[in-house]
Amino acid sequence: MTTALGLIGIALFIAGVISLAAGITYLTVRLSPSPGSKKKPKPETTA
Q1: What angle do CA 39, 43, 46 make, to 5 degrees?
Q2: How does 1-38 read in b/e, with b if 16+ C-beta sit within 10 Å?
Q3: What's the pTM value of the predicted model, to 2 decimals?
Q4: How does the average pLDDT of the chain come out, rounded?
Q5: Would you place residue 45 in the very low, low, confident or very high pLDDT band (cuts 50, 70, 90)?
């Protein structure tokens, strides 16, 4: 019985770590600026 509870505990721990990593990755992607959002400098005209 103890072995079964230990295996269930390890499975829950692994699922928790993967969920935490996925959540942190999601937040990082949502909060970081997208590459296309940078303002491009206007080319100077020489007239």
Answers
A1: 160
A2: eeeeeeeeeeeeeeeeeeeeeeeeeeeeeeeeeeeeee
A3: 0.65
A4: 88
A5: confident
